[in-house]
Fold:
Amino acid sequence: MREMKRLSYGAGLFALTATTALAGGIDRSGQSVGVIFESGNYAEFSFGLVSPDVSGVAVPLAGGAPSGDMAGNYAQFSGAYKHQFSDAVSAAIIVDQPFGADVDYPVGTGYYAAGATAKLKTLATTGVVKYTMPSNLSVYGGVRYQTLSAVVSVPFVAGYTGDGARDGSFGYLLGVAWEKPEIALRVALTYNSKIKHEIDTTENSLLGPLTSITTVETPKSVNLDFQSGVAKDTLVFGSVRWVDWSNFDITPAQYQGITGGSLVSYANDTVSYTLGVGRRFNDHWSGAVTLGYEGAHGGFASNLGPTDGYRSIGLGATYTQDNMKITGGVRYVSIGKAQTQLGAIAPAANFTDNSGIGVGLKLGFSF
Structure:
């Protein structure tokens, strides 16, 4: 059954590398703490490349031009180290990029948002401690330090540009899990707190320059992860992730003065689902397939994120040799259609038939 546990963590790589910015809000890593459940001392490193293709067409009243592909390719990385101090106590350090955005509307298309760009970066370092009771019930918790920076250019809004300097702040996580090792059963529930950033912001537009402080709170979330052996060498696993996007808002002072609204905000929370099956083929090779889903909410999406829900399928394989395992995977995402608005023009554009591809590689070492 130990190999079954490895299957679940290998499959989790797909969530890291492919649905992320295509999922609700600006979600990227999924904030997994799965490494804390690895056996013994363990370290892992992962890298992924994501290539979304998101384009739309303006309605005639907004010019009728195509947008071109506005979603930039991006890379993701993460690393983690877990140490087993005793049968009951373990701890881990996790580094990941929980949230992000890469927007780049091509110029020369005639589309009303042509030339608009936005980039948001985060980096989080999380320390987690887990205590396991004799009943196989465990509790865990930790502290997360996160940095956030952002830069944006929106030419169609009075030539607006904004630059948010990097800010660091703390949050926390709490969790509980129950395991039945003889059948590789585990259910884990993790709460991630919101993290509040006070960002030094420099804005410029036709109104001139302005410096101010922009408050941004990355959202709280809840992850439910589960796995269970269902037959010899076969594991079923999955997750449900809720994110409080309805309380997320980025509203720089000058942008609000020009438009009367937010630069980025979301009307709805999101719930994302993943379900997979892992299979061990022999002592060295195992594989997994995953399905993912996030429902659409309707309404109007932001011009800086014109997507609404997704469906996905992922395939991967893990090679194990002695204390090392290598996992590679690919995931295809069908991105939900969305409509945007431009002032009183609603809808201003229709985004349909969009998709994305993510590939990833993870190296794990037990010692």
Summary: Residues 1-21 have pLDDT under 50 and may be disordered. The chain is about 5% helix and 60% strand.
